[in-house]
Amino acid sequence: MKDILQREHPVLREISRSVPVKDIGAPEIRQTIADLTDAMNAQKDGIAIAAPQIGVPLRLFVVSGALLAQADKTYKGPKEPLVFINPEITKTSKEKHEVEEGCLSVRWLYGKVKRSAKVSIRAYDADGKRIARGASGLLAQVFQHEVDHLNGILFVDKAYDLEEMSEEEILEMQKVG
Ligand code: ZN
């Protein structure tokens, strides 16, 4: 199991490199996706994770479809891990929401961030197929948080009302319904 790097680690501040399109589907990239998925699934609140968080400075992130469905009833997509390679946010709504946010690389701080309510994203999936989709709600927030990781940005750079919380308190907050 790969360790999730914490905020002082310099890789988290790098601008990650694009994955060469010919390498998508290659064993090393598939291994990185598997490592990311394992590291994410080992965290009860791990809704998504970007490659630099396990020390791989490549533009790719994974979202837990299962946790997303649990946390946001408006999400109707697949429950499997969703893979986004070389993602680009192509549109952001002017409308912004204040949302609560935390990060697997910033244990255990929690705070408020202003995020666009809706975004459109373009990327490749794990098989190298081009994907384009819009998102609102929690998934839109996740897209913005993960693309920030690929640009060396952590949520604490933009957050306010930061509070240190225990793991139990964070898990409690994220229970829905
Ligand atoms: Zn994060």
Folded structure, characterized:
- The structure is a single chain.
- A hairpin with a 5-residue loop joins strand 6 (118-124) and strand 7.
- This protein has helices at 27-41, 65-71, 137-150, 167-173, and strands at 48-50, 60-64, 81-92, 96-101, 109-116, 118-124, 130-136, 160-164.
- It is an alpha+beta fold.
- The chain contains 4 helices and 8 strands, in the order H-E-E-H-E-E-E-E-E-H-E-H.
- 24% of the residues lie in helices and 30% in strands.
- The strands form 2 sheets. Strands 1-2-3-6-7 form a 5-stranded antiparallel sheet, with helices on both faces. A 3-stranded antiparallel sheet has the order 4-5-8.
- The chain binds zinc ion (ZN).
- Zinc ion (ZN) is lined by residues 103-105, 145, 149.
- Residues 103-105, 145, 149 line the site of zinc ion.
Could you say which structural class the secondary elements and strand pairing correspond to?
Answer: alpha+beta
Report the uncertain regions: none
Number of helices: 4
Shape: globular
Hetero groups in this structure are: zinc ion
User: What is Rg?
Assistant: 15 Å
Number of strands: 8
N/C terminus separation: 32 Å
Proportion of residues in extended strands:
25-35%
Q: Numbering strands along the chain, what is their spatial order in the largest sheet?
A: 1-2-3-6-7
Outline the biggest β-sheet: 5 strands, antiparallel
**What is the H-and-E element order?**
HEEHEEEEEHEH
**What portion of residues is helical?**
10-25%
What quaternary form is this? single chain
Rounded mean pLDDT is 94
